[in-house]
Design goal:
The protein is α+β, with helices and mostly antiparallel strands. It has 5 domains: about 50 residues, no CATH class; about 140 residues, 2-Layer Sandwich (Beta-Lactamase); about 80 residues; about 100 residues, no CATH class; about 60 residues, Methane Monooxygenase Hydroxylase, Chain G, domain 1 (Up-down Bundle), CATH 1.20.58. The protein has 18 helices and 8 strands.
């Protein structure tokens, strides 16, 4: 038997409080009776709070997400260690890449031994056990440490841990030991330390995605765009995110909140709540700096062969009269003229992109990239390359949408050969484009559809 502790549970009784004779004196008994119908055990650990309006409900989530954000901003390093040996099992830096974990684990082990052997000296060393938590100073950081049955967790923090972070650590430690009991047992018996595949669970548990670099999705569905336009805060968030992405290939939530607050006078927790909704809808996408840099590097590397010492950028502009003029002009351009021209090409490209003239936008971006790469403006090359990548995604999506639409129309008319032909074109686009959202599942569905149609031939 597996027992699940579900906390916190939200329950909507769907009754207007103005028409309920039991409100508010008998709400607890009423809700408890309703939940017990679902087989929930409510004999203990029941915390009951009435949230009697939608505003209070949203406020609760705003405060909850804001506290999660503050907690993860406070964490510099997460370290999991074997309880008996003190060996590091997982060391995951969030923003504290300079921490020497070998020295830290030794320091922790020495302090644990010291605290257990001398109770009178614990307070003198500013080292205390508070509800099974150890808290002490290490260099300029605050250390929060908690022992489980087999492992211990150590958080390296900027400031002292909040009560919510301590609760999170307690819940995480219990769940981690339960979830990875076999792996921990293997380590205890054989000394093997293969815990890298648990890092994703650690990231999810501590909401690390909130401090990841962020990018915007390259496609917005019409209904999503309509909802954003109707929400002034989300609209401002998207607009400022785009502004931040003009200077870098990613942005951070904390910077986005600062920019929005400069214009929109609203509490930071309310802005973060709306950002969080956009993350949940995958409109704002958490990534990693390594992923962004790797994408740009691969993009530049693949183009390096075709650039051929900056003589050609792509077939789009190779036969364009403008590139020949630019080649001659570039020989005598000053740095100021180069910068001005790059900005001009990018603005033209963005204007064309907004007008859905994607081929024209590509040409303008390529001209800007030609200048940036020719003058070895590495940051500009990376930024423009990322813009071209995003534009390529949009074009691929349009080509895919067109192929699938024609395929579906042909399928309805029972023209199965034409349908299969266009579906296979769509399949090729998906196979070639590893960066389209939900790629794997779309490939599987399309393959299945093609296989079913082939049975009709």
């Amino acid at each position: 038997m597996v027992y699940f502790q579900i906390s916190p549970i939200g329950f909507d009784c769907r009754t207007d409080k103005n028409n309920c004779e039991k409100y508010p004196d008998f709400c607890k008994e009423c809700v408890k009776a309703q939940l017990e119908k679902f087989g929930l055990n409510l004999d203990h650990n029941l915390k009951f709070t009435i949230i009697d309006s939608e505003e209070k409900h949203i406020q609760m989530f705003q405060d909850l997400i804001w506290q999660k954000f503050l907690d993860v901003l406070n964490i510099k390093y997460i370290l999991l260690m074997a309880k008996e040996s003190g060996l590091a099992l997982v060391d995951y830096p969030i923003s504290g890449a300079g921490v020497n974990t070998e020295i830290l684990t030794g320091f922790i082990q020495a302090n644990i031994t010291f605290s257990e052997s001398s109770n009178t000296s614990i307070r003198e060393a500013s080292y205390r056990n508070n509800l099974q938590f150890y808290e002490f100073q290490y260099e300029t950081f605050n250390i929060l440490l908690k022992n489980g049955q087999f492992i211990r967790i150590c958080l390296v923090l900027d400031h002292k841990a909040s009560d919510s972070l301590k609760t999170l650590v307690t819940d995480f430690l219990s769940e981690y030991e339960s979830r990875y009991l076999d792996k921990i047992g293997t380590h205890i018996r054989k000394g093997m330390r293969h815990f890298e595949d648990t890092i994703d669970y650690i990231k999810d548990s501590f909401n690390v995605k909130l401090v990841f670099p962020m990018i915007l999705t390259h496609t917005l569905l019409p209904d999503e765009l309509d909802l954003i336009q109707k929400n002034p805060i989300q609209k401002a968030i998207i607009n400022f995110a785009k502004i931040l992405l003009t200077s870098k290939t990613f942005f951070f939530i904390i910077n986005l909140i600062d920019e929005v607050q400069k214009i929109v006078r609203i509490d930071a927790n309310k802005i973060l709540y709306e950002v969080y909704q956009l993350i949940e809808k995958k409109i704002i996408i958490p990534t990693t700096i390594e992923t962004v840099e790797d994408t740009i590097y691969k993009f530049q590397e693949s183009r390096a062969v075709r650039i051929a010492s900056n003589e050609l950028i792509s077939s789009l502009i190779s036969n364009n009269d403008a590139i020949n003029e630019l080649k001659e002009k570039a020989k005598h351009m000053s740095e100021e003229e180069v910068n001005s021209s790059i900005i001009s090409y990018i603005r033209k490209a963005e204007a064309a992109e907004k007008g859905l003239a994607y081929k024209e936008a590509q040409i303008e971006y390529e001209m800007a990239l030609y200048l940036a790469s020719g003058f070895d403006y590495r940051e500009e090359v990376g930024r423009i390359s990322f813009m071209i990548l995003e534009l390529d995604k949009k074009i691929k999506e349009l080509e895919l949408e067109y192929a699938l639409n024609i395929g579906e129309k042909a399928e309805k008319k029972k023209d199965y050969i034409k349908a299969i032909n266009y579906y296979q074109q769509g399949l090729k686009i998906l196979n070639d484009a590893q960066d389209l959202d939900g790629n794997d599942s779309r490939i599987k569905k399309l393959k299945k559809k093609i296989a079913n149609l082939q049975k009709n031939l």
